[in-house]
Write the structure tokens for this entry.
Amino acid sequence: MPKLPKLPAPPMPAALREPPPRPGDPNGKKGPLDEAMEAGITVVDWVDERTSLSGAGRWLMFRKVPKGTNWFYTLGSATMFAFLSQAVTGVFLAMYYRPDPSGGAYESIRYVTNEVFLGQFVRGMHKWGSSVMVILVFLHMGRTFFFGAYKYPRELNWVIGVVLLILTMTMSFTGYLLPFDQRAYWATIVGVNINGTGPLVGPYLSDFLRGGSEFGATTLSRFYAIHMLLVPGLLAALIGAHLYLVAKLGTTAPPWQKAEAPKELREAEV
Amino acid sequence: MADKRLKHKSKYTLDRGIPGAFEGETITRRRFMTGSAHTAGAIAAGAFTLPALGFAVGPILKSTPHRWEPVGSEATFSEVNYVPVVITVTPNIGEAGKSTAYIRKFNPAIDTDAYDKGTPYIAISSRCAHLGCPVRWVDAAERFICPCHGGVYDLLGRRVGGPPVRPLDRFYTRVNGGDVEIGPRFSVNSELRRFSPRDPGEPLDGVGQYLYPSRPGAQKL
Amino acid sequence: MNKQQKEEYLREYALLKAKGKPFFPYAVAKDGAMACVVMVVIIAMSLILGAELGSKANPTTTTYVPRPEWYFFFLFEVLRVIKPPSLVPLATIGVPTLAMILLFLLPFYDRGPERRPERRPIATLTGIAVIGAMAFLTYQGANAGSPTAIETPTPPRILHAGGALLSEYEAGKKAVAQSGCLACHKIGENGNSGPGPNLTKIADRLPRQAIARTLVNPTAPMPSFKNLPPAKFNQIVTFLAQSK
């Protein structure tokens, strides 16, 4: 088989390169202890030989970030972190939740809050985490807007970001109904009716959300399915696309940062 | 220019000198395979998307049968004031499927509207016609008041202030063996003309009834 | 942005990037620190504020005052402020949809090459104005009082007078709240601003007799309160006549 040409991968930082053999070591001979110590490296090598993931990892992690990036640039990753926190706490809440409007939903949330070990804490994290995530989304969007970071060549990433904003608001809207207390119920009624005021399609949209012409037996499970399956799946996929584009196009430099032309170029101009 | 190119291109693959062509063949094999790949993919994806979508949309088209629910004897209600009663909107889900209606005996001095003739009782829904919040009857002011966005309605449920787009919805009523019974809900426009039930926030005056069509499953009484 | 400007930007960015530091560990360290801050905030909020669960959903209620979660307060306030029924679809669907479309298409109509906020005054000022408007609406929505209670404090001169006047004033405050006045009038932070006038300082404009006369013989669409029990009627008049 002819040898295929290989694209050069970005250079590995010196700190991570394999150190040369030390003079005191027995030449080339490796004892079982050495092999045990290198077990991790062996496993990573085995996976890398079959997936070539290390190139992607290096491309993602060791790409250069322009000079001058400041704390404002951590808002995006902080939002993603809040999403991860919501996903994990949400999974544990789902283990207890019953989407049953005739009493099961409220009872299961009451049980989580009052009786489950750390239940109130985990539910509080999920509840307040949603507020924190909404704030972070808006801050991240504000940074992008004021720094003009949505301009060429990052237009598509802005569009994906707006979709992520809408999905985040959808999450907060659908998550609202699930505890099934007074506030949850009436806010949902109002929210569904807001959708219904769109001419022509509105009535059908609110019927679709409720699963019928009135609040019924399946409305709660509909909201539950949207909240924990449909929208999180879309969110995760689009966060992936958002991150890929950030890595591909690079983090923006602050708008006031100006590059100084390299010395040889300046001399050439003179 | 495009014409020129088309002219010397025959529709037969044989004439165009494509390798492996045979007599009468008009579509190249590559094009045929590309088309097959797209079609097979579309059929496979449609096979799970369409039933799932139909399943999700199904309840919209379903029509629910009319139910009549007794709410108390005739002596319970007066001609001058509303009495709140709890009614069932969606059966079998307990508390969550209930609602409140305000009921008053038909009063020829107040209910002068032609559309109300022959109605034994006036039953007004507690769902605000703005966005569905629970309105309360305030006796002293003779007004229905919505606590959310400030809708105010008069004795007949017609809007007197705030953002509601139409009067409060009503229910059909009948008397059966001395008991007042509540039937299906209906919506009214500002002249109290009756329409099949709409959701809150959907006006029924002028072109409103066409912009916000009734649902396909709605049955005529 | 024309082709030359695009190339200029890409060249400039390539230079900046070449001079930068690797994402790992420099940017990741900052991101990690920020993630820790986020988690500390979430955990602190969970521990301090807890996860309250209201009373069970009750669709038959006629006394509950629904209020949304704080991040929908701005929309709630828009719905409260836009009064004419013909504009309701505009408030519920029109404005939010338009805002979303404008947000989606932002990179397609703002195509100038300039990125510094101080050199794009229109964009920067619009952004600040939108944030200010949303903050204002959120504040207003958060402070929207219930239309069935009056939360204005009793003025010190009445507290000082005490006795019959104080009890009459307090009873009148309750009677006004329960008689539906707030549906059309604003008193302090409670009630709706319109169609009736603001009653917070009504006594400055009308003497006691005029207030009583208006309650008995009002101009439409205000209903007459002459059927109220005389004691309750007098309490209402006392409360309004002391509102200055």
In short: The longest strand of chain A covers residues 64-65. The domain at 71-249 of chain A is CATH 1.20.810.10 (Cytochrome Bc1 Complex; Chain C). Chain A touches chain B through 29 residues (CB under 8 Å).
